[in-house]
Amino acid sequence: LCFFSRSHFNKQTTSTMGRMHAPGKGISRSAKPYVRNAPSWLKSLYTAEEVKDHVVKLARKGHTPSKIGVILRDSRGIAQVKSITGTKVLRILKASGMAPSLPEDLHCLIKKAVAMRKHLEVNRNDKDCKFRLILVESRIHRLARYYRKKGVVAPNFKYRSATASALIS
Predict the structure, then answer these.
(1) Is 38 exposed, middle or buried (0-12, 13-18, 19+ CB in 10 A)?
(2) Is residue 7 over pLDDT 90?
(3) Strands, E, within the chain: which ranges?
(4) Span 139-165, mean pLDDT?
């Protein structure tokens, strides 16, 4: 005799935080390698200083920290900058004074909101875009509150749709 229903066995065992504006739980992800240090063949190719110089050079060209990581992975074979240099990309940029003024995730959300507002100027009756804009802006406000609390952005930082395009330029 079985006391549990079938759905009981199909439930996820670990609890994960759900999405803010979507029903998914977001459990699908790539796994980092267990070994945290760089492979020997990679250490023989690049020194920590070479990689740091390359990170700064890519930042001068205007690339974001995540884009720098992708470029190093695809063109140089450096999967994790931290495994070679001992520090992360953003910390390298902060040390050299090249770090972006806004965190990258907040910057991308503001950029998305500006594009949606531009779209709404032309297409006033796009109800779905109006709804999605409200969701994006609520994410911006939540993230800005978090970064204000952590001291990453100025304590008086406030997102305003009128001045948002100046923030991302």
Answers:
(1) buried
(2) no
(3) none
(4) 94
d(CA 142, CA 22): 16
Q: What is the DSSP letter of 78?
A: -
Supply the mean pLDDT for the chain: 89
Q: Taking 70 as the threshold, does the pLDDT of residue 13 lie above it?
A: no
First to last CA, the chain: 66
- Our separate counts of H helices and E strands in the chain read 9, 0
**Pairwise CA distance, residues 82 & 92, whole Å:** 10
Which residues does 85 contact at the CB level (< 8 Å), separation at least 6?
Answer: 48, 51, 52, 92
Produce one character per residue of 137-152: b if its CB has 16 or more CB atoms within 10 Å, e if not: bebbeebbeebeeeee
Residue 75, number of CB atoms within 10 A of its CB: 10
Confidence of residue 4 (pLDDT cuts 50, 70, 90): low
* Euclidean distance between CA atoms 116 and 126, whole angstroms: 10
